[in-house]
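Recap slide: PH domain-containing protein, sequence and predicted structure.
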Amino acid sequence: MKIIKYRKSVALGRFAIALGFVLVAAFLIYEGIYSDATLPRRIFYIATAVIGVSYFGRLLVVYAYTVIKDPTMFSYDAEKLRINSVEIPRKSINKVQVDTNIPTGILGIKTPAFTIIYNGQEKQHALTYYVLTSKHQDEIYLQLKKYVSNHKKAI
């Protein structure tokens, strides 16, 4: 069985970057409240910090989740493809595609995903949570396309 995983080092690096932005936003909130700057500048500090925390804070939670969870995205063998706990028989897979805006269910963030279309119109998503580099994502996509196309040639 071939297991496709994301690299924890990429997830950890992106977690560190998001943490840095959240810490900068916290510093801006502190400066907005306690500095001797003019009122417009203090309002700018706080507004910038709120925008930063609302965006990078959500990403920080998602990256923390990817650092903690099992890095396996999916696995496959000659008979079936397994995403999370769903097993899809290889014969029923019609198409593989990359979608860019699949809801994660975590704080309303949408993430890229590999979408497996099987049994006509049923879909199963292998979420990437933004932890794949573009090169790694392309390699995985080519592997999936080859997996599906080899099945179709055998029919």
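The chain has a mean pLDDT of 91.
The helical segments are 8-34, 39-68, 134-154.
(End of recap.)
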